[in-house]
Amino acid sequence: MDYLESIIEKYSRRRNFLIEMLMDVQHEKGYIPRESIFYLSKRLSVPVNEVMRIATFYKTFSLKPKAEHVIKVCSGVSCYIRGGREVVEKLENLLGIKVGDSTPDMKFSLELSSCSGRCASGPEIEIDGEVYGNVKPDDIEGILKKIG
Amino acid sequence: MQRISSYEDFLKLKNRVQSIMASSERIISVCGGGGCSSKDGKKIASALKDELGKKGLEEKIKVKLTGCHGMCSWGPSIIIYPEEICYLKVKEKDATEIIEETILRNRIVDRLVYEDEKVGKTPHLKDIPFYNRQTRLILGYNTKIDPQSIDDYIALGGYSALVKALTQMSPTDVLEEIKKSNLRGRGGGGFPAGQKWETTRNAKSDIKYVIVNGHEGEPGAYMDRAILGGNPHIVLEGLIIGAYAIGARQGFIYTRHDAPDLLKNIETAISKAREYGFIGKNILGSGFDFDVEIHLDIGIFVSGESSALMRSIEGKIPEPRPKYIRTSVSGIYEKPSNLNNVETWANVPLIIENGAEWYSKIGTERSKGTKLISLSGRIKNAGVIEVPFGMSLREIVFDLGGGTGNGNDLKAVHFGSAMGGSIPKELIDTPLDFDACAKLGAPIGAGGLLVLDEKDDMLELVSYFLDFLSTESCGKCVPCREGIRQIRKLLKKIKDGSGTYQDVETIREICDVQKEASLCALGRTASSPLESALKYFWKEFESRLVKEK
Amino acid sequence: MSDVVNITIDGKECKAEKGMTILQVALREGIDIPTLCYHKDLEPYGGCRLCTVEIESRGRKNYVVSCLYPVEEGLVVKTRSPEVEKIRRIIVELLLARAPGSPELIKLKEEYGAKEEKFGKEPIFCILCGLCVRYCSEVKKKYAISFVQSGVKREISFIPEIALKECDKCKECFPLCPTSYAQALYLLTQALSGGPST
Q1: In Å, how far from its chain's centre is CA B316?
Q2: Which chain C residues touch B if contact means CB-CB below 8 Å?
Q3: CA dist B130 to B111, B119, B145, B403, Å?
Q4: Is the pLDDT of residue B39 over 70?
Q5: CB contact at 8 A, C129 and C48
Q6: Residues C118 and C148 grouped into a single domain
Q7: Do the bridges between strand B26-31 and strand B61-66 make them parallel or antiparallel, or are there none, so unpaired?
Q8: Could you tell me if A143 lies within 8 Å of chain C, comparing CB atoms?
Q9: Is residue C17 part of a domain?
Q10: pLDDT tens, C113-139?
Q11: In this structure, are B334 and B374 located in the same domain?
C-alpha cells in the first residue's frame, strides 16, 4: 500500500482531493483495485460506500484491470456526425467486444472519451496516448496491426 | 524573481519585460494548442530553433510555442511577427525553408499560405477573412505569448488591471464597474456577472469562495481550453480581481483532467503569480490575501453543473444539490461561492483596465463584449473564434467559417450542445445575442457551434445528445433518468419506421415533465435539442411515422 | 414572532415555522402529498420528484418538490393542480416500467389514472429511491449499501465486505423498500459470496 500512502501524502491527506487521489490510483495501476477503496476510506475517514460511489461514477475509472492497449474513441458530437459512430462499430466488430470491455486475451480495451476539442480533425481515436485524426473505418485494421 | 509590492515596482517590471520583448527582431509564434495536435507544434518549434541556431540567429529571432491560434483545421499554424505572416498546415520539414526564405530573404513561402476563391493567396493575418472579421480582445494574446511566461503577458499589458484595482480602486468600485459593464456569464445562462458577484459579496459570512468553471463538458465546445491553455494568466488575473471585489480569500480553478499541457500551464501560471506576489499574503501591499487551488473533473458532464462542481471540489460525488438555495449564498462547504466560467473571468481584466464604458460599446444592447465560439461539424474552417455580439450567424458560418466546405448546403447550426437547440438555415441571419438565440430555442450555451449540412439527420443528432446524457447525467431523479430512457426507446422506434403520432405525443409529455420536475438544469434542458428539432424539422419525424388509417 | 410564517395550502391557511418544508407542514395539517423517497429520519433527497407541487411566490407560478422547498411568508401552494397531477401520473408510469407490480406504485397508479404499461416493462425492481442506502448510512452508519454507476446505469449494490458482517443482524432497510428489491439483492449478494456466513 506504499503507492497509496504516497498518493495520500501528495494531497496532504485532505479529503477534498479524494477524486484526484482516485485518479492517481487509476493512473498508477491502470484501474482502481478494490482494496484501494477500503484503504482510502479508512485513511481519509470517508464512508466506504461514498468512495465506492465515486469510483464507479466516472467512465474514466475502472474497477477492472484494463488491457495492454487502451483504445479511446472521442465521443464528441462533431466526431460522431463526421463518422465516429461507424468507427466505433468497426472497432467493436474487429475486436469482438463492446465499448467498455476488453478482449479476452487482454490485448485491447475499448472506451469512449469526452470530446477532446480537436473537432477540426475528427473522427479521432487515441491509443496509448497516440492521437489518430480523421480516422475512417477502413483505416482501423491498419492502425490495430501497427499497435500489435 | 522579486515580489512586486507596489505600483512603482510593477511599472519597473513592466518596462523591463517590454524592453526584453522589443529586443527580438522577429518572433515566430508556433501554435501548440490542443486543436491541431500539439505535439506537431512542439516538433516544429524545435526544428525552427535548430535552424536559427545553425544560422546564429537565436538571439535576434525568438521562437515561441504558444496556445491555440484558432484556425484548427488549418493547423499547425505559425505566425511571424512583426509582419504577421501566417503559415498554415506547417510540417517539421518546412522549418529550413521558412528560415532560409522568410527570415533571411524576406520572401513568402507560397505553398504554406492561406488561399480561397474569394481572396486568393493571402499571407498576412490582416487579409485572412477568418482572422480579420474577429475582435480578438481575449484570444489576441494567444498568438503572441508563451503561456508559461508571466513576463510575456505583463509585457502586453497583463496584470495592469489587477494593479489598478488593488492600488486605485476599492472593492465596491470594482464591483460597480463590472455591474456597469453588463458583463453576462459566458457559461450558459448569460446571467449578469456583477449581480452574481454582489449576491456573494453581500452574503453574511467571513469565508467566501470564487471559482473558475473550466469544466467545458459540452461536446464540441473547446474555447475555454483555448483561453486557459493559451493564456492562463488572464483568467487568473480576472479571478484575483473578482475575489478582491467579492471579499473572497480562496479561489478554485476547476478544469479537465485529460489535457496535460493545459494543467501544466495553469500550475505554472499560479506558481509564477505567487512568485511575483499577485497571489499570497498582502498582495501588492494592499492587505488583501488570496490563494488558489486546482481541482479536476475526471470526465462526466454533470459535474459542470454549478452545485455538482462545488461538491466535487469538496471531494464528494458530483451530484447536483436538490436544495432551493443559490450557490452564491451557500456553495462550497455551505459558504457563499461565486462561480463564473473561464471566459467570463477573462473579460474582467479588460473591463477594469479599459473601463465599463469602453466595454459596453462592444456588442448589442443586452449582450456586451465579445464571445468566443468553437466551430465544429460540417465547417471548412473549424476552430476557435472571438467575435463581437451582434455579428450575424451567417457571417460566422460563411465569412469566417468558410461554409460547410464539403459541397453540401447548410441545414442548420446547433448551439449549446446537449442542453441547446438548432437554428434552421432560414434563420441564419439571427444575430449572435444571448436573448435572440435563446428565443429561437438555441441558447448560446458556452459557445460551441455545431454546423449541420443537408445530409445530416436531425433524429440522429437528437439521439446522440440523449445517448450522451444517458451516461453523462447523475441518474438521481426520475424525470431525467427514466424520461431519457423512455424517450430514447421511442426515438429508436420512430427511426425504425414503427413510431406513431401517439409516440410523439408521449415524447412531448415526458419533455414537459422533465422541464418542470427535474432536479437540476441538466434534466430541465435535456429535452431542448429534441424540442427544437420537433419545432423546426418536424417533417423528418413525420415522414417516418406510421400513417394513420 | 418573526419565526412564524403564514402559507396557504390548497386554500387552507396554515401557520408554519421558518425552516420547515412544504411537505412537513402538509403532513402536520393532514394534507396528503405522495412521496417515494421521503423518510422522516433521513435528509430530504429530492430524487423521486413525486411530491412536486405548484407554488405561487411573488406572482410567479413554479413547480417545486415539497420535501425540500422551505416555506416563506405568503407562499401559496396547490398540491393537486392539473399540471401537478400530470407530472405525478408520468412519474408513476415511468417507474411502473421499472418495477411493475409494486403495491405502492399500483396504489398511485389508481389515484393518478396512470397506465400500467404505458412504457412497456423493463423490470429491474429498484426505483432508486435510495431509502436503503441512506438509512444504512445516515441512521445505522454501517455504509453496507452503495449507489454505483451514473446516468441510466445507476443502481444500488451491497458491499459484501460489510454486508455479510452487518446485515443479518439488522435488515431494517428491507421494510423501507417500496419494491422488496433490497431484500432480494441482499440474498443475491449472500449467494454470490458463498452463502450466509452463519
Answers
A1: 26
A2: 44-50, 52, 63-65, 68-70, 83, 86-87, 90-91, 94-95, 97-98, 118-120, 122, 127-128, 149-154
A3: 18, 11, 20, 11
A4: no
A5: yes
A6: no
A7: parallel
A8: no
A9: yes
A10: 999 999 999 999 999 999 999 999 999
A11: no
